[in-house]
Amino acid sequence: MTRKNNIAGTILYWGGGLFISAIFLDSLRFKFTGHPTPEHIFTTLKEWSGIALFFPAGPWIIGLGELAASILLIGLPLILHFTGKKALIGPSQFFGALAAFGIMSGAIIFHIFTPLGIETPVEWAAGSPTKYSSALFYSACVTWVLAVLIMIFRRARVTAWLRNSA
Q: Which of 60, 110, 116, 143 is deepest in the core (most CB within 10 A)?
């Protein structure tokens, strides 16, 4: 890899990981506190699919997955960097991106192919939505693309790590 590609890759997996983690970590305050937006999303999916697991467990399950992805993308790599175990940073970020890819693939599919739709409520008054936005859908799409790019850029590190572990 040339120095220019190395710099671009470094910006991608640290910047992309930071963006994904910011999106995921910011959403936890909604998922873990019973905010009406995640309740609307997961209740809509529950009613559409007939799968009771979607709500109330859905926000917690997805929130924990997003937290794990964030730890693998940014938290653990920072610890590995400062403890001198830099060879493990690539695999950690790869698996964090893989988790983000899976979570966002589900989000995108559910937004497009279910009654949830692309626009979801973002403001509420007296238990009813007052404003809708497509921001959740578009942030899921950007997160998905960044996760794919991080997996592509980090695949060689994972392959080397797996080869050395066997």
A: 143
